[in-house]
Amino acid sequence: MATESFVLKVTEVIEETADARSVVFEVPSELQETFAYTPGQFLTVAVPSDQTGLAARCYSLSSSPHSGRHQITVKRTVDGYASNWICDNLKAGDTLRLLPPSGIFTPKDVDADFLLFGGGSGITPVISIARTALEKGTGKVVLFYANRDQDSVIFARELTELSAEYAERFTVVHWLESVQGLPSEAGLQLFASYFTTYTAFCCGPAPFMKAVSTALRNLEFPRERRHQEKFVSLGGNPFGDVEEVLAAQATLAEADDADDEGEAEEPAFAGPVALEVELDGQQYAFDDWKGEEVLLEFLEKKGVQAPFSCREGNCSSCACVVLEGDLAMKHNDVLDKDDLADGIRLTCQGLPLTDTLKISYNG
């Protein structure tokens, strides 16, 4: 199962802006398959901490898969321990512990036409998608990139070079708050209205993503062509062995007060459940999930390499789309009401509500 963490060597630290660094890792030949990724995915990084031992953070891969490069990009945030530690301390030759690539913020078809929205450091997964689509696909790519000011623009040189190389297929619109103010929902909707047949991906600060999402919904972009990435700081430690994590969760469950159960809105269905799963082009079917453990744990026991990171309902790396049936969630800190209405659920918190369930990790 894709649960083991690995210590990788840092080969290069690149200063992208005064507040952003790209970190390049050396992946040995025996781990190339383990660390294979698709554009838009992320790595979970264990940042050393004197207070907690480590701080687990998710950072998107800004490199493209076909480049053979494994590069994340980190922007310093105010009072952000992990980002500041990386920007201030990390250097070539150091090592960090990582989980393999994960996440579902990734296109199904790189030949599609893409409408990309990046806000600040939200450019990191977006540029990976753009590079891949331009270099390996055949469609057009439009990027709306919002930043505080000109000095805050990450990958300014790379975007200029891509625009020159793919002049007939790549359009970049830079939006600077220092010049134009914050992008409005109405402005974003007008911009997107010229590209209503494109597939949209958005990553950035929450207000920016909400404005983009609302604009796309107003234009009736179908759910399968609207994608957004969400990260929050991880409170737990996803770097322990699966057995240790499950044992700890079982101990906590035994100590729970009967009146203080999880956040599921309805009692979970008492299995067995007929379960169908679509993941990375493969189909899985099981008929023995009794709902005694969350869906992610059941899939892991069955040997399915399902994506995950925090295991606490704090990130979207384990998210799936429910196609038939329904899942209750014990805890959810990341999905909003619109996500839930679209059938998105967190498998690390998912318990069955129906005797039949069909899910897809492919959006």
Enumerate the spans where pLDDT stays under 50 for 5 or more consecutive residues: 241-262
Radius of gyration based on Cα positions: 20 Å
Count of extended strands:
18
CATH superfamily of the largest domain: Nucleotide-binding domain of ferredoxin-NADP reductase (FNR) module
Strand content is: 25-35%
The multimeric state of the shown protein is single chain
Widest β-sheet, arrangement of strands: 4-3-6-1-2-5
DSSP helix count?
9
User: SSE order, as H and E?
Assistant: EEEEEHEEHEHEHHEHEHEEHEEHEEE
Judged by helices, strands and strand pairing, the structural class is alpha/beta
Largest sheet: 6 strands, antiparallel
What is the CATH C level class of the largest domain, in words?
Alpha Beta
Helix fraction, binned, reads 10-25%
GO molecular function, one term: metal ion binding
Cofactor: FAD
Keywords: 2Fe-2S, FAD, Flavoprotein, Iron, Iron-sulfur, Metal-binding, Oxidoreductase
Protein name: Ferredoxin--NADP reductase
